[in-house]
Amino acid sequence: MTRQRNDDVGSIGTARSAPELEVWQALNIALDRAMERDSAVFILGEDVGLFGGSYRVTQGLFAKYGEWRVRDTPISENSFVGIGVGAALAGGRPVVEIMTVNFALLALDSIINMAAKMRYMSGGQMQVPLVVRMPGGVAKQLGAQHSQRLEHTLLNVPGLRIVTPATPQDSYWQLSQAIVADDPIIVLEHELLYFTKGPFDADALPPPMHAAAIRREGSDVTLIAWHRMVSFSMDAAAKLSDSGIEAEVIDLRSLRPVDLPLLRESVSKTHRAIVVEEDCRFGGVGAEIAASLNEAAYRDLVSPVLRLAASDVPTPYNAELERASIPGIKDIIRVV
Amino acid sequence: MQHKLARQFFYDMTLARQFEQAAAEQYTQGKIGGFLHLYPGEEAVAVGSLHAAEAGDYVVSTYREHVHAMVWGVSPSAVMAELFGRATGCSGGYGGSMHLYDVSRRFLGGYAIVGETFAIAAGVGYWLRLNDSTHIVICYFGDGAANQGTFHETLNMASLWKLPVLFVCENNRYQIGTEIHRHSAVPDIYRHASAYGIDGRQVDGMDVVAVYEATRSAVQHVRSGNGPYLIECETYRYRGHSMADSGAYRSALELAELRARDPLALFRERALTQEWLNESDCQEVEKAVEGVVVDAVRFADESPPPTDLSKDVYAVPLDLYGGRP
Q1: Domains of chain B: residue spans and CATH
Q2: How does pLDDT run across A103-123, given as a tens digit for each residue?
Q3: Is B126 an 8 Å CB contact of chain A?
Q4: Could you tell me if residue A49 is inside a domain?
Q5: What pTM was estimated for this model as a whole?
Q6: Domain extent at residue A260
Q7: Residue range B50-79, pLDDT digits in tens
């Protein structure tokens, strides 16, 4: 586990008035506001309290709300997520942080066997208003056990919803929306996006939690991405524009459910689409999107929806191989 | 012991025995599907322990939980209807034998993965503690579950944060077909508690009065804010693990020895000797229970099935390809 710090950013107080924020700060504000608003909201996770969170997301909250609402847990992923489920059944609104998606593999019983099924199994008597936040993605040479993307693992679990905020504004909006929602929601974050900046307005009206967003309009091809692949697609689109190809870039923002209407609308204009995916190709989100779009927008397409995804290998440690294992800007341009 | 409590114990244990017998018959006739784990032999544990708790306390149980549900107030008809998979079942026909719930009574299941009950109970306990509640959680588990990581992880956290959870082990000596000396290096389950600074004790799980007394003092301990407690009830199941298991791995001698200490027969005899109950009290209860069980089966059989396949997957219906809600 690496602990990434950027020491020139402020605490909660200074963050709040800044016009531009980093992703971790936006998440921090979302948590702070939710906890202020509703005493049922509390945080559980490894090093979320005194330490302030591995990516600073819970910084300052332990001091403000105390140990019962910002609980440092032992290294017991399955059980502390299960504690979140139990507390949610009893009326709480826990926000559980799992240090990385890789550790969430230990907690899949609590997430998949319990949280996702309780409402249905109980005939609608119970609800699990639980948020599980976890960062993933290929970061900087963290090795195969710390570089996974778990989209594919969580994608086909009825009862779960999955959001993938990539900007500070979406991080704030979607985490805030997830906390007040009455279902178990997985907030997938990206390790390399925590310290990226973007415009932020806490009072702006949010779009629906699961709506996709058009980041760049274009007429020739639709690039469908989420997390870090959105900025890669934006960079590729800018370069493509120089050679006269206008790519439309869509940030999915949510993987389950997925905003197929917006994708169809875009494809009806561009007639071509490529899913750009940091997760492995085989059996991934891209496969679902491509299949759905091929079925739903067959008449609009002049060629099948393509997938550009990570190689189906564990992530190598070597920096160059690591870079080669996931799509890059040049790869996007080449496939277009 | 008061007549009223003795009658309640006898009623609940008789109901437990007869209900499970009826469930076995209905399973054989194909009215009940899936896995069916029955409780005969273990009645004293649920009955003795749950009567030491109070309304408002939470109960979290395993997949062998029909009796816990009924003792905690869920009607036998609602339980039987759930086994039949009917809309009138306590989980609307969506849960089945292993997933009985009644939120209005704070009966929280019904978990089919061994070891899940620990964290659920600790989570409820965390919420109670966070809200300074005087209620507690009773968490049932079997001897096999003590080998799951969640047992050790949760005992650690429950002790660390002094959560109001009473862990009740139903040690029936077998994890399906593997006898406890072949699955646990420390077969006295209560001794595991001390590793996490939790007090625990062992009690004769075939003696409903002993279970009741032990649980009463344990409940007092937990309710007073002293943190968790663990009671190990030494018990036995007469049947196999589920209806799919004949239990052939156990000797006839062992079974006969345990049956000689049948919790229901022992209590009946003791209640008569101690004059807590007389013979006509007992017969009256037995007759009343017969009627209740017959009614439960009829109710289940006549109830309609659930029809909506996709309700309650989410709080509001979610179009996976809509993306807008």
Answers
A1: 3-302 (3.40.50.970)
A2: 999 999 999 999 999 999 999
A3: yes
A4: yes
A5: 0.95
A6: 213-335
A7: 999 999 999 999 999 999 999 999 999 999
Residue A206 lies inside a defined structural domain of this protein: no
CB nearest B324 (choices: A87, A89, A211): A211
A227 and A78 within one domain:
no
Q: Is residue A207 part of a domain?
A: no
Same domain, A125 and A254: no
Residues in A closer than 8 angstroms to B161, CB to CB, are: 71
Question: CB distance A87–B124 less than 8 Å?
Answer: yes
Q: What is the pLDDT of residues A67-92, one digit of tens each?
A: 999 999 999 999 999 999 999 999 99
Q: A160 vs chain B: nearest CA distance in angstroms?
A: 8
**Beta-strand relationship, A93-97 and A131-136:** parallel
Cβ-Cβ contacts under 8 Å, A105 against chain B: none
CATH number for the domain spanning A169: value is 3.40.50.970
Mean pLDDT of B204-230: 98
Q: What's the pLDDT at B1?
A: 75
- SS3 of A73, please? coil
Q: Where a domain ends, among A199, A233, A265?
A: A199
Q: What are the chain A neighbours of B127 within 8 Å (beta carbons)?
A: 86-87, 90-92
Distance from CA of B308 to the nearest CA of A (A): 11
Three-state DSSP class for residue B186: coil
State how far the Cα of B234 lies from the Cα of B203, in Å rounded to an integer: 6
Confirm or reject contact between B34 and chain A (CB < 8 A): no
Task: Evaluate whether A130 touches A88 at the Cβ level (below 8 Å).
Answer: yes
Three-state DSSP class for residue A306: strand
Q: Provide the pLDDT for residue B92.
A: 98
> Cβ neighbours of residue A209 under 8 Å, at least 6 residues apart?
A161, A163, A173, A174, A177, A178, A181, A254, B325
> Which pLDDT score is estimated for B324?
61
Same domain, A139 and A245: no
CB contact under 8 A, A122 and B306: no
pLDDT confidence tier of residue A9, bands split at 50, 70 and 90: very low
Assigned domain for A1 exists: no
- The answer on A301 and A187 residing in a single domain is no
